[in-house]
Amino acid sequence: MKFDELKNVWAAHGALLERSIAVDERLLREMLLRKVRFALAPYAAWRALEVALGIAALIVVVPVLAAHGAEPRYVVVAGALAVFTIGITALCAYLLVNCLQLDYSGRVTAIQRDVERIKLVEYRALKWALLGGATLWLPALLVSFEALTEVDALARVQLSYLIGNLIFGLVLLALGQAWSKKHVERSDIEPWARRWIDALSGRGLRSVTGHLDELARFEHEDLPQA
Amino acid sequence: MRRASPANHLAAPMDATELTDLLRRHAGLIHKVAFAYCRDATDREDVVQEIAVQLWRSRERYDPRFKETTWIYRIALNVAISFHRREFRHRDRHLSIDLHAITITAAPAVEPGEDVQVLLRCIDDLSALDKALVVLDLDDNDHASIAEVLGISVSNVGTKLGRIKDKLRVAFEQRARANPTE
To answer: Is B172 in Cβ contact with A224 (below 8 Å)?
Structure first.
């Protein structure tokens, strides 16, 4: 069969669809209003909440760091916490702004690239958040306590305890990564857990970079075949 | 990030009635895109509704100087490709159950003919981007329009299509021979 004949087959299918399609105006309006609100709200709300929490964390961490700027322990621990918080907050702000501005009416290759770049940042943010959460939760707790009570909690904790906590966090992450690689193909996982597993196992990043490569190949000018 | 430029705001954005008219006029196009990317009827319904939502969200950016179909193809293909890339097996369907309002539906009796089913199975084997190229070509768009929708050069469209058409034709004949009752 020639391609033009396939076109005829496709056109006949289209004509059949055209005849059978019904548009219910009332239901369409209801659906549009409901679904637009529904689709946008959770993602944007989570990103906005993350940005707000990041800013709140910085408001807590920076004064403590400034008050103990000459003490190496504070510079290293609270400094790492501040850098981590700035990084994560910036990534969340990037996601918030870009997801709200994504315009699906752009050229397919351009929009698909934008979508994949957003996903890339999302996976990176999640991965860094897991890394930071596992290793910096104790310093975060101590610095928050210090900011609230003005008791220099971070200075009073033994260094060995802080190092032990850091090692524990790294071991926990390594175990989490091994577990996520083992269970990455499981289908009975809730969507939120799926995101964590994909981020930890590296599968999410591989999928995104694979699609970006595919896009680049697609855009590449093919040489006519001999 | 692609954003609407101020120059694109040439007319007042369409209202719900205008969008409904537009959907009525181009419902066949939207359904064909959904058919090309989804085998499952529920997934097709989701894609069609998502396309309607994105058309509604993008209505302020529609530039009437350009063809309506270019705008619709872009949105429909972007939605379908993104949907296609999501992992269906991990989706939480519970949330979307009550959103399955029947808005733009093909009658249940509409089942693709045997030739169309074979063609759709052949299209299934293509990558998401090649599918877009083939759907646009099957819908009789010229190379310049396809290039405009996809964002690649006209010559690239020509060479890619030549290769894909050969592949598709061979696959169609093989499938049709292998399973004549399909």
So the answer is: no
Residues of B in contact with A22 (CB under 8 A): 104-105, 107
**d(CA B139, nearest CA chain A) in Å:** 7
> Of chain B residues 30-59, which have a CB less than 8 A from chain A?
31-32, 35, 49, 52-54, 56-58
Residue of A nearest to B112 (CA): A13
Q: What is the tens place of the pLDDT at every residue in A14-55?
A: 887 777 666 666 667 676 666 666 555 678 888 899 999 999
- Chain A residues with beta carbon closer than 8 angstroms to that of B61: 103, 105
Question: What is the DSSP annotation of chain A?
Answer: --HHHHHHHHHHHHHHHHHHEEE-HHHHHHHHHHHHHHHHHHHHHHHHHHHHHHHHHHHHHHHHHHHTTT-HHHHHHHHHHHHHHHHHHHHHHHHHHHHHH--TTS-HHHHHHHHHHHHHHHHHHHHHHHHHHHHHHHHHHHHHHHHHH---HHHHS-HHHHHHHHHHHHHHHHHHHHHHHHHTT-SS--HHHHHHHHHHHSHHHHHHHHHHHHHHHHHSPPPPP-
Per-residue pLDDT of chain B (182 residues; tens, 9 = 90+): 544 444 444 456 777 778 888 888 888 899 899 989 988 888 888 888 889 888 888 888 887 777 889 999 999 999 999 988 875 444 444 333 333 344 555 544 466 777 888 888 888 888 899 999 999 999 999 999 999 999 999 999 999 999 998 888 888 888 777 765 54
